[in-house]
């Protein structure tokens, strides 16, 4: 399994970054504007979203695939005054902005806020339509990163990204391998009414918040061995999974509300939605969270029952899971879902090992390289 690597930086890099930020801050300070200044990455909780997750670009993508990049860019330029429709990450981004408004009221001088970065390899010509759409919806997205076909990983690190959302599973996998919390987003099949006062985030446990070490036991030895194993190691915390750091970042902002006596009125709520059962394997995950000093507002143990109906009641702005059948089930019932391509679950479908044909070496433009070049 891929290891979660911490991001390492040298002292010189830190120093250069510090100077860049001083210059940027001086520039913003010299402007007279009501637009809030973007916070420093080391203070902010940075969320990078691709253009196809923020906006629904299904029709545009079809032009790109069927007619090529020139026609695609021409179409985008021709329609640059038509705002794009909201995409899967749109309600989540709106909810982040609502939390920021509450934080700014409580802490006018603090930079501990969500900072949203638009991370796209779209052609610069398409940027105008993206900017127009962002302004149309009144979104506060000041940072644009147009990677021009290059991998976004370097930029994700430079922005100290706490969460990266994309439609491209290859880029998401690459980000996870570099230790960045990331997920592939899907549009839900139906619309559901989401809270506009509270950001609601639901996480699966194994291979999302936690490593896949226990999932491996289930897949290889079955449930009975797993129950025995979890009982035996109840007091040994699980290793961290790809999304643990994002839960940690949410917790940091939640505590700012608690410090102002706003616990009951906190605009961030977190949920653990796990297929584990409480009695036989629940204690280990709760003890693991406790050992990390992390709180989760609600822990729901489904004992193997489908997650979709429960998520329908929770109505999260985003639900993270490593297994596609949970994502599909949640999606069918109107939950906006994000797939975390990590761990042993990627080799299985509905409990069965997926037979993968041996990879052929190819010199031409195959599926993989086309996926890398698609506009995200
Ligand atoms: Mg899982």
From TrEMBL:
A Pfam family recorded for this sequence: 5-nucleotidase
GO-annotated molecular function: 5'-nucleotidase activity; magnesium ion binding; nucleotide binding
Biological process (GO), any one: nucleotide metabolic process
Residue segments, region Disordered: 355-376
GO cellular component, one term: cytosol
InterPro entries per the UniProt record, alphabetical: 5-nucleotidase
Domain of life: Eukaryota
Name this protein carries in UniProt: 5'-nucleotidase
Annotated organism of origin: Gambusia affinis (Western mosquitofish)
